[in-house]
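Q: What residues go here?
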């Protein structure tokens, strides 16, 4: 891109200089002149070309880092962040693979574990099964274009769905299997979302730093006559995901 697009500020207008720099960088990102992974000029470059102080440019860059448009690598510089994936699963029931494919992304799944575990009273209660009944536990990392996006733990009633342990979850959709093999069509889900910090374990799986912000989403899925068939805990990378909701009056 042409450097003057970033350095174009007007000291004669009553608009803070840091804000002008910030907006010029944002415009370059939104217009595709700056793409994910591109390195920005140094603070010194901005100071020399714009005739402004280093604290001024630092404020502009810091706000863009905080808002997720840029990221810093110590000793290397400031870079443009990859655009976030606009997840629509708060509005529409569809598989992860379907949603990512519709966005032009290539989805993939790594299955970390499929096993029968002892029941957990709080989860068994959500699934409306006896406290002592065992659970089928499914642990996966979902990717788009080879990059880890979400770490997912899923709990299912083992007595009802124990045969699922033999299925290939690397390539098959859980909800499709429930419908095809058990005639259980998921008709409704209840989801809760909150912001948490990544533990060492989760950070390693998602290839982010420990303590980075992630979105934790819990789901209870219901089939048929409001029969709970799944409880899941999904941890989405905060730097690569955003969630949109449409509301109508």
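A:
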């Amino acid at each position: 891109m042409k450097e003057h697009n970033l350095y174009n500020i007007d000291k004669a207008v009553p608009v803070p200089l840091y804000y002008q720099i910030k907006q010029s960088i944002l415009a370059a990102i939104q217009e595709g002149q700056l793409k994910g992974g591109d390195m920005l000029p140094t603070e010194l470059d901005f100071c020399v070309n714009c005739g402004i102080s280093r604290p001024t440019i630092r404020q502009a860059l810091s706000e863009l880092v905080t808002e997720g448009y840029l990221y810093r690598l110590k000793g290397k510089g400031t870079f443009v962040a990859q655009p976030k994936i606009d997840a629509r699963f708060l509005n529409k029931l569809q598989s992860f693979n379907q949603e990512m494919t519709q966005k032009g992304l290539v989805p993939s799944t790594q299955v970390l574990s499929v096993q029968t575990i002892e029941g957990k009273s709080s989860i068994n209660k959500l699934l409306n099964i006896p406290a002592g009944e065992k659970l089928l536990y499914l642990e996966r990392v979902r990717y788009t274009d080879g990059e880890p996006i979400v770490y997912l733990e899923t709990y299912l009633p083992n007595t009802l769905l124990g045969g699922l342990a033999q299925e290939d979850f690397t390539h098959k959709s859980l909800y499709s299997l429930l419908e095809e093999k058990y005639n259980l069509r998921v008709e409704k889900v209840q989801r809760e979302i909150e912001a948490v910090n990544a533990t060492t374990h989760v950070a390693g799986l998602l290839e982010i730093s420990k303590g980075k912000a992630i979105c934790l989403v819990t789901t209870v899925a219901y089939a048929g006559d409001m029969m709970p068939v799944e409880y899941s805990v999904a941890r989405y990378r905060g730097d690569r995901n955003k969630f949109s909701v449409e509301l109508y009056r």
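A: Context that may help when evaluating the design: The longest strand covers residues 186-197. The first helix runs from residue 4 to 7.
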